[in-house]
Amino acid sequence: MNDMDKEIKVLLVDDEPHILQFLEMGLVNEGYEVATAPDGITAVAAAETFSPHIVILDVMMPGMDGFEVCRILKKNGSQAAVIMLTAKDEVDDKVKGLKLGADDYVVKPFSFEELLARIQARLRNQFPTLFGEVAIGPFRIDDKRKEIGFQGKVLELSPTEHELLRYMVLNHGIVLSKTLILDKVWGYDFGGEENIVEVYIRSLRDKLGDKEHRLIRTLRGAGYRVDLT
């Protein structure tokens, strides 16, 4: 972690004390400033005073559940990235959370390393000024110039190609479904076909010289994943 990461605030919301303790210890050791909340009402109040960059939010809580907390946070204008943390793996629940403004969805049980990767992805995606120009593997993302460099050269990309590649690189190592890509790049109101994702992935592979699909991998039935190793 660099010095900039020590300024990053994470709010943990879960009604299970052992999970709060586990995550708090791990994130503090990684250099994050951490606040915790054992329920939804406390979480809403804490978000106003603590102003977190990231909210790790459990869905299944008594009283005010995570969906309602997420809705209130977004309604109140919170700029925090919300990662829903839950034991529920139903597609409908994921869609509901994302439509309420959640930025990611992690299903229990999960690895701490995966959660860290998702936190970093959300930070680079929503708070790029915390990092300035971002270098990830062979890529360089410059949000001020709206440029993406690859192996030292600036890529010639359409606006949609830029947003798609940026999203996938910032989430490298994570499998991204077509539905999720459409939601995050094209938006929830996109009325076209999922196949548009395949068209743009093919174009990006051409521009990256990724003929063997080693950089942007296809996982049949699951989606796509950017591999940088």
UniProtKB/TrEMBL annotation:
Entry superkingdom: Bacteria
Gene Ontology MF term list: phosphorelay response regulator activity; transcription cis-regulatory region binding
Record keywords, A-Z: DNA-binding, Phosphoprotein, Transcription, Transcription regulation, Two-component regulatory system
Any one cellular-component term (Gene Ontology): cytosol
Chain segments annotated as transmembrane: none
InterPro entries the UniProt entry points to: CheY-like_superfamily, OmpR/PhoB-type_DNA-bd, Sig_transdc_resp-reg_C-effctor, Sig_transdc_resp-reg_receiver, WalR-like, WH-like_DNA-bd_sf
Protein name: Two-component system response regulator
Organism name: Paenibacillus yonginensis
